[in-house]
Each structure stands twice: as structure tokens, then as C-alpha cells.
Amino acid sequence: MVGTEPSLRIGFDVTRTRAVLRTVPQHQNDLVQLAARFPAGGQRGPLSLEVDLDDLLVGISALGSWPSPGDVQWDEDLAGLVGSVLDDAETAERSLQGQEPGAATVGPEDVGSLLGAGWRADLTTFQKRDIARLLSLRHGANFSVPGAGKTRVGLAVFAALRERGEVRRLLVVSPKSAYESWQFESQACFKQPLTASVMGKSPDPGAEVLIVNYERLDRSLASLASWVRAAPTMIILDEAHRMKLGARGTYGSACMALGPLALRRLILTGTPAPNGARDLENLLSFVWPGHGRRVVTSAVGGGDLAYASTVLRPLFTRTTKQELELPAFETRIRFVDMPVLHREIYDAMVGRFSARAEASRDDFDALGKALLRLLMAATSPALLVEGSSRYEPLSYRVPPLDVPQSDPLYELMRNLPDYEMSPKYKEALTIVAENAARGRKTLVWTTFVRSLATLERLLAKYQPAVVHGGTVDREEQIRRFREDPACSVLLSNPATLGEGISLHQICHDAVYVDRDFMAGRFLQSLDRIHRLGLAPDTETRVTVLAARGTIDEVVALRLEEKLEFMGRILDDPSVQQLADLQEEPSVAGGMDMADVRALLGHLDGVAAR
């Protein structure tokens, strides 16, 4: 009947991360029954129900139980979102069953004509394949390895969609380190360069490509939402693993709120599941709300990762290192033994008290067993002692003093560099020295700033460049490592330099003094020296250092499990290879302090300045 009020209205809430279902009084009981089908949702009154968008799309079949389906009214934007998700789910299902995918499918041979006369950049065979796959879906995911040209692929997808008239502009969410790449490619790929703008205090209304970092998303959400709504827009999340927590994280919730506003969504990351299936669920939930989470849960639930990979494959594209024909690289782990005092202190920290440690039990209990403290202690317990600043290096005495047997263990820890040198530092020093003698530069990773400062002092002979979060001349440090032959080592932490930089042209050796449980960060940091552009005969060597009988062994085991999962789910042997590091003996184990002093060279002079 004309003018009859809809029995059920379904639309977004103000955050656009939840759906609101509103009914009329005569259907109040029907809404109660419907609410029971969405246990994670909640009624906000007798005539209103709120449901997470993901939950609504996962359980959308429940709406079939509504007694009056003919007069259900959908918000136009939400209806479009649901339709696009279901279309892609159907396309993926046809592909999985080996059926004809339909007329919308694009082949690699079609890509050139779809990009339009304004496109001028060259594309590799793999890039054309990835572009074709992404254009065959309404939304997509590109999980190609670093160096495969994901930025160019993303811009090509945008160019084709703009040529079709489906979108007019592009919002790119990326780390700051990727700004340069997006700005360069926006110029290089088009005869008439795109107007690319980095987000300032407010979005540039005239920008064709607006670039913003993850840290700004939450506080700029309202203005970005207005920018996206103002014209048909595509959203690309670059290094999308940054929002792997999904709605539970600040970055993820902001991305989830923006996602439904865009006509097209694309995520780019080479490490889509750094901690397992939940990460992949959250990433694909941005691309395909509801369907992404459901398909991952269903695929992985049976425990057969080969099957899961087959099920998920239609939803993403990936160019592997093997496909890029990168030369193989060696990945090794060296276990080092802690010297006597180091071991006694570490054991006390985890509750194994020697007779001497008993006298300091309260002090060691106060240190606690937090992850970062144990990782520090596995490198050197002296890092746990507060210095004059967070940048103060440990000052090693060479040759060392004899350990006084009468001093309390906690006091000995405070002066540990007087008595023993960290075996990890000794090992790193040996590797850097050997590489420098052969004219090879070394990239040394360690998590802690004081550890970086200590290594800077120990390796002073090799004029190290140092980059961490507090480095003010970062570009100059990297330039010196690249261009100065006397600078044989770069010291950094994966949190600072793990993304957005290429060192593969000048460095082919990496050493990890320590690692944490973040598999994605480990993979990203490895790719700084192993990526597209290496000569076929390049020998790339990666060495992980681990203290035997410490948390390092737990970290190694968990990273092995995570990398094995990600390698199998992506069907990528190169990732699986990293899950099984080849063990090799320490080369510094037999060094005495005279050997160390010879390697350190002018350490005493440096320390005295």
C-alpha cells in the first residue's frame, strides 16, 4: 500500500561500523526474535537493534525469517555494500569450483586497454596478472612480497576504475615511509600526473590522491569521511597489516569506519597473517565485511592449511619471491651460551635462585618477568639497570675484572660489563669484522636503544650508522651507510627501519641480536636487503643470534609456528623456509678477551673521549 511505513529499516549507525535495525510497534516481538539470531548485538529499546556490521553480514540469512520481507527498507549505502560483498563471494565460489567466472572477469591481456590513454608506466607480467585479478573483483587484496610493485598495481587498478567512470579519486592510508613511493608513482605512471597530496590539517579538496598515515586516521576521521563522501572514492590500505587488530585496535576501527564509504577497497601487504588466522580475518573483514571473517574461519577451522589456502586463493593475489626469481638467501641461527654470571642473573629473574641470588630475591622479584625484560636479559642483564639516559651505552672493561665472590648478585648485575661481555655482542662483533674484511656491509638489528648505543661504541672501528626512533638525521645516517666505504655497519631496530627502505643494492648481510614475537616485523625487516633488483649471483646471508636456555628459544619456536602458518596459507615456500632456520655453531665461542680487544681496536680511546 502506498505510504505504508516499512516494517523494518536497516542502515548504518553514526560510526558506520554497526548496523541499526528499526521496526514499528506491531513487529516488536519479531525484532526480539531476530535479536536472538545476533547474540553479539543488543537492543537499544523495544523497537531498535544494533549489530556489528561484520556480524550482520555473517548472519545475513537470518533476515530471511522476517515475517514481512516485502516492506524491508535498506539504507542505499548499506545495500550497496552488502551487494558488492555477496557478488565477490559468488565470484570466488565459482572460481573455487572451477566454473566459468562470468563476463566481468578480466584477463592479463586486457589490462593495457583498460588503463586508458593516460597511463604510461611499464608493467611486468606478474603485475598485469595481479591487476587483472583485482579488477575481476569489486574489492581486493594484494599480498605480494616487497619489491613486486604493489604501489604501481594499486594505481593501475585505480586508473582502470577511473577510466570506467566508477571512481574519481583515491584515499591512500600508509606509513609515512611510503609517502615518497606514492608521490613518485603518481607522477611516473601517468602522462598527466595525478594531483597527489599528503594530508595536512584538513584534506585537500582538489587532490586526486590523498595520502594519510595510520596515526592520523582516528583524529581526522570526520574530515576524511566527508572527503570520501564528496566524490566516488577508492580506498587503499598500504602495509595493511598495521590494522590487523581490526575493530579492537585504534587503526583498525578507523579503517573499518571509512571502508563502507568507499566504492572500492583494496589492501596491500606482504605479511597478511603475522600472528595467525585472526589477523587475516580482520584484514579481509575490511575488504569484505562479514564474508572475509566467515571464509577465513571456515577455511582454517578444519586444520588443513593446504585446503585453507585453496579456499582463500580466489580472494587475493600474491607474487612470491620465487616468481620474481630472486636469488636464494641463507637463513641461519646461532645459539650462544651465556657466561657464568649472565646465566646466574637470568636464572634468578625467572625464579631459579642460586645461594648467592637468594640474598637479592626481593630485587629480582621486583624486576618481574615481563617479556621485554627477559629479552633484554637474554642479551645482557646489564641493560636492565637504568642508565643516566635511555641512550647510555654499556661500558665494557677489556680485559675484565675477576668476579668478586662476596658481592650480592644484584650488585654484580649493576656492574656486569666490568666482569663479562655479552656473548651476543661478541658474536655480532665477529660477524661484522669478518664481513668488513671482505668488503661487505652488515645490517645489525636489535630491539633496544641502549643495545644500539652499546653496539655503536663496540663497533666504532667500523664507523657505524645508527637509526632509531630518536635519530634526528635519519636520512644522513642512511646516506652514509649507502655511500661511505668506511661505514661498514648500520645499526637499527625493526620498529624504526623495518619498512619503507631498500638497502639490497649495497648490503647483503643481516644480523639479529634479538627478536620479539612479531613475525610480520621480522619478515618486513628481512626484505630490506632481499628484494627485487638483486643480481642473480648475489649471496644474501641472515644470521639470528639466540642465547641458549632463555626466552630466545621460546621466541624462535613461536616465530617458526607463525611463519609456517603464513607460508602454508599463502602457499609460499620462501616463507616456509624461514620457519626452519639452519642451526650453525657460534664462531665467537672460542674467543678470549685478547681476541676481543684486537677486534675492538681503539675502543679504549673512544670510551675516554
List the helices and strands and how they pair.
Blueprint (H helix, E strand, L loop, with lengths): L7 E5 L5 E6 L4 H9 L5 E4 L2 E5 H6 L13 E3 L1 H21 L14 H4 L10 H11 L4 E3 L7 H15 L4 E5 L5 H10 L7 E3 L10 E4 L1 H4 L3 H9 L3 E6 L11 H9 L5 E5 L8 H11 L3 H11 L3 H8 L16 E8 L3 H10 L5 H4 L2 H7 L3 H9 L29 H6 L8 H15 L3 E5 L3 H10 L6 E3 L6 H10 L5 E4 L1 H4 L9 E6 L6 H8 L13 E8 L3 H19 L3 H6 L3 E2 L9 H8 L2 H6 L1
Parallel strand pairs: 1-5, 6-11, 7-9, 7-10, 8-9, 10-11, 12-17, 12-18, 13-15, 13-16, 14-15, 16-17
Antiparallel strand pairs: 1-2, 2-4, 3-4
Explain the overall architecture.
The model is unreliable at 602-609 (pLDDT under 50). The chain has 4 domains: 8-74, no CATH class; 83-315, 3-Layer(aba) Sandwich (Rossmann fold); 329-334 and 421-608, 3-Layer(aba) Sandwich (Rossmann fold), CATH 3.40.50; 340-418, no CATH class. Helix 12 (291-301) runs antiparallel to helix 13 (305-312). With 609 residues, it is α/β, with parallel strands linked by helices. A 7-stranded parallel beta sheet has the order 14-15-13-16-17-12-18, with helices on both faces. Helices cover 41% and strands 14% of the residues. The protein contains 27 helices and 18 strands.
